[in-house]
Design brief:
mainly alpha; Methane Monooxygenase Hydroxylase, Chain G, domain 1
Length: 118
């Protein structure tokens, strides 16, 4: 019975040996020459200025949370679309209610100004 797992164990051993070998080779072959430019923090190609503890606007987090909510809710449309013919009219009406609730939420958020970037 263990004979069936021998190829899997060999593949696992080769993968581990490959990973360890690459790490050792990169450590041996890569010369470490620190320079002031290399030791400076990288800020998207710009010279770092000011305090690193700058506060983000709360609106950034609100928009991020709203994006996640509407993105996840949109994913629920995929299984509904796959099983659309099997669900019939009842499934269609349920999805209309679901999309209606999402639309009411989006209109509410829009009217409150949560999507404004000021």
């Amino acid at each position: 019975m263990l004979r069936e797992y021998v190829p899997v164990l060999i593949l696992f051993a080769v993968a581990v040996a490959n990973a360890v070998g690459m790490m050792v080779a990169s450590h041996i072959l890569n010369p470490y020459r620190p320079t002031p430019q290399k030791l400076m923090p990288y800020e998207s190609g710009m010279i770092p200025l000011g305090d690193t503890r700058e506060r983000f606007s709360v609106k950034f987090y609100i928009v991020a949370i709203l994006f996640i909510i509407f993105d996840i809710e949109t994913v629920f449309l995929i299984p509904w679309g796959v099983a659309y013919r099997d669900l019939g009219v009842f499934g269609f009406l349920e999805m209309l209610v679901f999309i209606g609730v999402l639309l009411v939420g989006l209109i509410y958020v829009w009217k409150k100004g949560a999507l404004e970037w000021e």
